[in-house]
Design a protein that fits this description.
By secondary structure, this protein is an alpha+beta fold. It folds into 2 domains: 226 residues, Rossmann fold, CATH 3.40.50; 87 residues, OB fold (Dihydrolipoamide Acetyltransferase, E2P). The chain is built from 9 helices and 18 strands. A 6-stranded mixed sheet has the order 6-7-8-3-9-10, sandwiched between helices. Helix 2 crosses helix 3, helix 2 packs parallel to helix 4 and helix 3 packs across helix 4. The protein is elongated.
């Protein structure tokens, strides 16, 4: 019986020359989680993913899958499979042969590997495309083929390197939902690298926010958004204002800020704000305001609330929030 295996990092480091790209990371990701590694370019997330896969050497520390130390194992012997950002399909091979390729390398007979490949092609809803070459496929179709090829080896962990970045926005949302459902159906761990906050919040059961080779926060998407540990996470995840008073720093969700017109006859004061920008987002509207001291706040209002009293750029307004909506941050 196959036992679920957690993925654990113990003091993992990665050096490129004298540059330390991953700085002693220790972390445990439980089996069957959909974990997103999230952070700006150069934060170390892709290096971490490639060390799990065996495509980068580990400079220090250990990576464990269950009780197996992965450090010195070849990529094929790790129980992991990687789906690359550019999909890396063989241009001269058909969809069927691309998906079956890993089994061919293992010496599986042609009939058996084609039979298994057909099942994974069906899993990603690409049946009927078996004989097509990659150049005859759309971006979304290429992604499905790459996913089937990565899954055919039945890995314990699927590693995904920004798999949605090459897709148009509408298709990205569709594929996001499919990846999440597929992870549930397969019951295996997905480790997904992205720089998109929306993507991470939508997909992950747990998220890791990285910055300059270190982990800033490891938490559920709900806690990453509602309870960021510090200013970096609040800024990077987005949707927050940063406020400082009483010698503490707080985050305030932009949808918890209310903006209203000044009452008739009310004069402009230090607590008055001026509308600087209005951004229509479809079902909501972002409003940027600033006061006489050039302190800027952002509010996100449902579109129906905005159009009840449509504000104008340059208009003076007042801002309110509840103290209970303030979340205290560390430095």
């Amino acid at each position: 019986m196959d036992v679920d295996q957690d993925l654990e990092f113990v003091g993992v480091q990665k050096f490129y020359g004298k540059t330390e790209a991953v700085k002693g990371i220790s972390l445990k990701i439980e089996a069957k989680e959909y974990c997103c590694l999230l952070g700006p370019s150069g934060c170390g997330k892709t290096s971490l993913l490639r060390m799990i896969a065996g495509h980068e050497e580990i400079s220090g520390g250990d990576i464990l899958l269950g009780n197996k130390r992965l450090n010195d194992l070849t990529p094929a012997n790790r129980g992991t499979s990687m789906m690359f950002q550019n999909y890396a399909l063989f241009p001269h091979l058909s969809v069927l042969d691309n998906v079956a390729f890993a089994l061919k390398i293992k010496g599986v007979s042609k009939s058996e590997r084609y039979d298994k490949a057909s099942k994974f092609i069906e899993l990603v809803r690409m049946q009927g495309y078996d004989t097509r070459l990659p150049d005859q496929l759309s971006g979304g179709q290429k992604q499905r083929v790459a996913l089937a090829r990565a899954l055919i080896t039945k890995p314990k962990i699927l590693l995904l390197d920004e798999p949605l970045s090459a897709l148009d926005p509408a298709l990205r949302i569709d594929m996001r939902a499919e990846l999440k459902q597929m992870q549930r159906d397969l019951g295996i761990t997905f480790i997904h690298v992205t720089h998109s906050q929306d993507e991470a919040l939508a997909l992950a059961t747990v998220g890791v926010v990285m910055n300059e080779g270190r982990i800033e926060q490891f938490a559920s998407p709900i806690n990453l958004f509602n309870k960021p540990v510090n200013v970096f996470v609040a800024d990077f995840v987005g949707g927050h204002n940063i406020l400082e008073f009483d010698d503490y720093t707080y985050s305030l969700r932009t949808d918890r800020l209310t903006i209203s017109e000044l009452e008739k006859g009310q004069k402009k004061s230090k607590s008055t704000y001026t509308v600087k920008d209005i951004e229509f987002l479809g079902n909501s509207v972002n409003i940027t305001v600033s006061n006489l001291e050039q302190f800027t706040l952002k509010a996100n209002l449902p579109d129906r609330d905005f159009y009840k009293n449509e504000l104008k750029i340059g208009q003076n307004v007042k801002c309110k929030w509840n103290k209970t909506d303030l979340h205290k941050l560390s430095a």
